[in-house]
Amino acid sequence: MRQMQMVDLVGQYNLIREEIDNAITNVVRSAAYINGAPVKQFATNLAQYLGVKHVIPCGNGTDALQIALMVLDLQPGDEVIVPAFTYIAPAEAALLLGLKPVFVDVDAHTFNIDVSKIESAISPKTKAIIAVHLFGQSCDMEAILAVANQHNLYVIEDNAQSIGCEYCSSDGRKAKTGTMGHIGCLSFFPSKNLGCFGDGGAMLTNDDELANRLKMIANHGQEKKYYHEVVGVNSRLDTIQAAVLDVKLKHLDHYVESRRKAAQRYNELLQDCESVVCPKVSDGQQHVFHQYTLQVPAESRDALVKHLSEVGVPTMIYYPLPLHYQNAFRGKCRLSSSLAVSEHLSKTVLSLPMHTELTLEEQIFVCDEIKRFFII
User: Fold this and answer.
1) Do residues 114 and 171 make contact, with C-beta atoms less than 8 angstroms apart?
2) pLDDT (0 to 100) of residue 376
3) Cα Rg of the chain, angstroms
């Protein structure tokens, strides 16, 4: 059996090598490395795929979050609700702008923000909610938007891990994640379901005014060259990355389906292992499995990681510390209530290899070793 990878980017590239190489060669021949035609083409094609009016490419997913907060004209000290169990970027972007992250606990099964705890976290200073669609599954956007509308709050969707996922409302309407709030934010980090060959990101909105401001702030605060209306940043998706992404976008639905099939195989192979809890998909919803994340007994996790490593199986822990335990946020955030679920998950989650080239043989090996560990 080949050496196992958490993410097999080489294998993915080999299957579309000719398309990718041609796209990159065309950019090199044009020498339009910044704001070349493929950037606009990719933005147009992605907007069509997602069913959103505006796609504004930028440098990376964290830039997307920061710029999204900048266009809302929030003031220092304003509060932004963020899940306590996620990557640092949403809270980091808020803090960099002088805003105060307010941490809310997450659901024990979906790992997404617990909507039932949002309302009690709202104060007169609260101005926005950042809904993080974690590991590939949508938050309960219908409920989040209802709370936001009631309290006149902005909603930013951090869709870095869930591009291609579809959310189904109670009335049967469907929409892609990232397109339901005021602004959606994407990351095209290489390991993402839609990843480029470096850094890249984008912002999504159906609001014309917000789109214009997003474009302006991402381009040094200017609409017309050398005429700067506001203080902005320099954040752009370079042409080579856009060309790569435009090729891979054509394969995204296939990538998503491959991940779903791999997740189903994991579920079936581990169904008789009582020591692990497989990821739960909310009723009537979808999951695109950026990560396949188990819950295992806290007292066994480190030993299981060691065992799997010794037999050649890579694993990752996303995330070993909830955000309110990070030194960067001590004394600079507000805790809305008990964050016990986030604290528990940080001790029990474990992600297994998940990518589009994962084979049945590899998955059988991984699951046999997990079961062997708990039997021993």
Assistant:
1) no
2) 64
3) 21
Q: Beta strand pairing status for 79-83 and 100-104?
A: parallel
Q: Is the peptide bond before 319 cis (omega within 30 degrees of 0)?
A: yes
**pLDDT (0 to 100) of residue 1:** 67
* Helical residues (DSSP H) of 133-281, grouped into ranges: 141-151, 208-218, 239-249, 252-270
Counting Cβ atoms within 10 Å, is residue 263 exposed (0-12), middle (13-18) or buried (19+)? buried
Tell me the DSSP string of 237-274.
--HHHHHHHHHHHTTHHHHHHHHHHHHHHHHHHHTT-T
Q: Which of 164, 156, 152, 97 is nearest to 132 (CA)?
A: 156
Residue entry with tokens 């709050």:
153
Q: Alpha-carbon distance 163 to 137, whole Å?
A: 9
User: How far is 360 from 363, CA to CA, in rounded Å?
Assistant: 5
Query: How many CB atoms neighbour CB 170 within 10 A?
Result: 8
Phi, psi of 307 (to 5 degrees): -60, -50
Among the listed residues 156, 134, 136, 135, the one whose alpha carbon sits nearest the alpha carbon of residue 144: 156
Q: Sheet of 334-335: strands edge to edge? A: 54-58, 201-205, 183-187, 154-158, 126-132, 79-83, 100-104, 334-335
pTM of the predicted structure, to 2 decimals:
0.97
What residue ranges define each of the domains in the chain, with the CATH number in brackets? 9-249 (3.40.640.10), 252-375 (3.90.1150.10)
Q: What is the pLDDT of residue 375?
A: 86
What dihedral do alpha carbons 54, 55, 57, 62 form, nearest 10°? 100
pLDDT score at 2: 73
| Calpha distance 218→183 (Å, rounded) | 14
Structure tokens at 145: 């938007």
The low-confidence residues of the chain, meaning pLDDT below 70, are 1, 376
- Residue at 116: amino acid letter: S
Question: Facing residues of 234 across strands?
Answer: 219
Query: What is residue 153's DSSP assignment?
Result: -
Q: Which residues of 287-316 are buried (b: 16+ CB within 10 A; e: fewer)?
A: bbbbbbbbbbeeebbeebbebbeeeebbbb
